[in-house]
């Protein structure tokens, strides 16, 4: 049989081992790092979202599609992954606008597009055009878009570049704001 002294020694060793381990562990090893800051909360997300804005006469005004839409209630906005917006032209053609990412505030008055923003003009007759920029704000209710960033436009072999642009979809009109340069080829 074990004496009381031996039992106390065994109990002390069994208790001392976890306490010693617990005291030697550094806080970095036992707790996850919070250096990245708090994680923003998403209250809902939608996969393969399609949002249609209708005109007053019942025709389609715009169709926004995105593979992933996440809503951030603290920011009061939705984040869009690779958004694509299709808008009809007055002549039966359509505009196709896409970007790497987008932001849609809860007010839905504008869509902020960023990263490789491309606007494809697809008329029913004549050559199409491509306009590219890094950032653009689309105002769906007003059929208007704006950017202060450099823009590049291609139509066939003709190119135009500028810094800043106002685009009026309903009038099919573009205003280039500054540093406009063009290269046009006579055919």
Automatic annotation (TrEMBL):
Pfam families: LptC. GO terms for cellular component: outer membrane-bounded periplasmic space; plasma membrane. Keywords: Cell inner membrane, Cell membrane, Membrane, Transmembrane, Transmembrane helix. InterPro entries: LipoPS_assembly_LptC-rel (IPR010664), LPS_export_LptC (IPR052363), LptC (IPR026265). GO terms for molecular function: glycolipid transfer activity; lipopolysaccharide transmembrane transporter activity. This is LPS export ABC transporter periplasmic protein LptC. It comes from Marinobacterium marinum.
